[in-house]
């Protein structure tokens, strides 16, 4: 069977797929496969190895009558038309859990870097601006003994909470359902969204991308935050109204932001966020450790191999397909 791979992946993962199948692989690692080329390649494809940056929509499915499995090298799958896939009996797999600790690490690193002006301080040295010690030079915000509010208490949220406890932080959380198990395990406190925003020194967005969470943080929500507060987002760019955030940062309505994700990716050099001095920006690298990315790639490949062989995919997004098949 034919497997289309939309990014260059490690040879060892590609070889897993080629034991019993043929592959087409787009040779760029950091540049998306052109949409028109993907449309052409899926015409005779049985499986699709994709990622969070590829648009897998209805026209893709319409062009792929043989398609049986789509597996994305990501936890999120908002870029895939799940309804269309399910209606066509196409299995969709993803890679949950495996990246939670890596993203929690990066989230806390971004929080620390933003609070303590780490990137700005490094650039200060590189630019030759450091002439000596100053009483208020590059002063940031305290992290230890502060209050963090976590929006989305899943696996990554739990990891961030564990790290925050080591910094003596008070930990608030808001979730679509209350997690009393985590309250007992981690000492976190459930809060309404508004109360969390008003009380937190750091607001960490970790909610999935859904219709309900789209632009969950907008002008009203930003107005509730402390002027000394910092907003961190390592979930999805669509969860925050970027225009409202830019305005709040420009007006110093909040103290700063650390962002690993954006409403439209990638962002370019003329993006208004880049001109601001109170943000730290990263290129969607939350899960980017060697071990984590290799495990994600292997899981993505296994999802495909299991689906093509008729076995049940462990990490499936749309289990209703199995019910449809009886």
TrEMBL record:
Coiled coil stretches, renumbered: none
Keywords of the record: Oxidoreductase
Span of domain D-isomer specific 2-hydroxyacid dehydrogenase catalytic: 3-318
Segments forming domain D-isomer specific 2-hydroxyacid dehydrogenase NAD-binding: 108-286
Record family assignment: Belongs to the D-isomer specific 2-hydroxyacid dehydrogenase family.
UniProt name for this protein: D-glycerate dehydrogenase
């Amino acid at each position: 069977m034919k497997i289309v791979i939309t990014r260059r992946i490690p040879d060892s993962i590609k070889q897993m797929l080629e034991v019993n199948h043929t592959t087409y692989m787009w040779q760029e690692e950091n540049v998306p496969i052109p949409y028109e080329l993907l449309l052409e390649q899926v015409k005779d494809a049985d499986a699709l190895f994709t990622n969070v940056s590829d648009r897998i929509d209805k026209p893709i499915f319409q062009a792929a009558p043989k398609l049986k499995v789509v597996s994305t090298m990501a936890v999120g799958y908002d870029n895939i038309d799940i309804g269309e896939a399910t209606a066509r009996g196409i299995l969709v797999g993803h890679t949950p859990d495996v990246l939670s600790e890596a993203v929690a690490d990066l989230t806390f690193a971004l929080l620390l870097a933003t609070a303590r002006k780490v990137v700005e301080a490094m650039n200060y040295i590189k630019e030759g601006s450091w002439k000596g010690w100053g009483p208020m030079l590059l002063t940031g915000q305290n992290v230890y003994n502060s209050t963090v509010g976590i929006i989305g208490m899943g696996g990554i949220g739990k990891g961030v909470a564990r790290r925050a406890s080591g910094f003596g932080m008070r930990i608030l959380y808001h979730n679509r359902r209350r997690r009393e198990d985590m309250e007992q395990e981690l000492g976190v406190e459930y809060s309404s969204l508004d109360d969390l925003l008003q009380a937190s020194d750091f607001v960490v967005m970790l909610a999935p991308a859904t219709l309900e969470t789209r632009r969950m943080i907008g002008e009203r929500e930003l107005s509730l935050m402390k002027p000394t507060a910092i907003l961190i987002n390592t979930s999805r760019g669509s969860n925050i109204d970027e225009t409202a955030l830019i305005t709040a940062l420009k007006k110093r309505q909040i103290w700063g932001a650390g962002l690993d994700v954006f409403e439209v990716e990638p962002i370019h050099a003329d993006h208004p966020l880049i001109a601001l001095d109170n943000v730290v920006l990263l290129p969607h690298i939350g899960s980017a450790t060697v071990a984590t990315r290799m495990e994600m790639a292997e899981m993505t490949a296994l999802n495909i191999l299991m689906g093509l062989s008729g076995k049940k995919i462990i990490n499936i997004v749309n289990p209703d397909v199995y019910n449809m098949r009886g």
